[in-house]
Amino acid sequence: MESLQPLKQSEILLVDDSPEHIEVAISVLCDHNFKIRVATSGSAAYKLIEQHQPDLILLDVYMPEVNGFEVCHSIKNSSKYSNIPIIFLTASNDEESIQKGFEVGAQDYVTKPFHIAELLARVNTHIKLKQQTESLTQANKELDSFCYSVSHDLKAPLLSIGKLTEYLALDYSSALDSEGQQLIHTIQEKSLEVIHIIDRLLEFSRMCEMQIQLEDIHLEELFLTVYHELMKLQPERQVSFQLGHLPTISGDPLMIKLLVLNIISNALKYTSNKEHAVITISSCEQKNDYIISIKDNGAGFDMRYAGRLFEVFERLHSQREFEGSGVGLAISQKILKRHHGKAWMTGAVDEGATFYFSFPK
Fold this sequence. Notes:
This protein has about 350 residues and is an alpha/beta fold. It has three domains: about 1-115, 3-Layer(aba) Sandwich (Rossmann fold), CATH 3.40.50; about 140-210; about 210-360, Heat Shock Protein 90 (2-Layer Sandwich), CATH 3.30.565.10. The chain has nine helices and twelve strands. The strands form three sheets. A five-stranded parallel β-sheet has the order 2-1-3-4-5, with helices on both faces.
């Protein structure tokens, strides 16, 4: 059994009102270097979690006052505690409870009476998964911080280069031939291009760190507002904007507006060579999600390269064809992931593209 021991002492909250089961669980888990706290009711469990977060919760299904399902639902709907893995304790023949446990957010179940090897294996597995997730989250935060620092430090000298070339053009224009003038113009243009990329990279980095402030957002109204704002910048365009019924969602208003801005900007950009652009927005419902689609009749893309679309700085069209930094779709995916949604695209070359995103109800 020694191979099952965790590397460091982890804390488990056992929520059960059966003295017999409590005694067995404590005996087994303490022998394998776990620290155990016990709550015999749901209300007692809440208090212990608030005092100190456990690494894992063993939760009995049936208890007086508040049952295990209600306790699990409350924990999983709390932003502070939702990452705590929960293993339900249930009878081996209670398939209905096992299914309901998964529906309210539990990670696993263990049947009673306990099989020692099974209990230890499941506990160790989920504690290890939690530790790995926390390590990965921390590594991502450090990477985001690094990207922000590097981007910020790169921007200052590039701005200086832009200013110096501006002075050069003003003070020495008479001494430069047309080729020299063009060279200065190219340096300024490329400096601004890199600064724009850095701004987008900083924007992407901030998106990873921003705290989410949830509000009700009327998507239909937001799509229409953003579209009109963008069309003011290109009033000469002939665009058919077909907006179907869209749901009201709960999300961060700044992030969701940026998401919609990226989506519609892309649709307008990649239909810019069309005499008459058509952008169609619609939605449908699944069991747990809304699915929003934004279809255009623009340049489209080769589906063989669809996997690259949401990577930072990946582009399927040249800068000459369509301007851009290749960060907008990566930011959109990051926004959706932070709201527990996701994005994907379909398309065909010269036949347009459709951007889809799911959003939880």
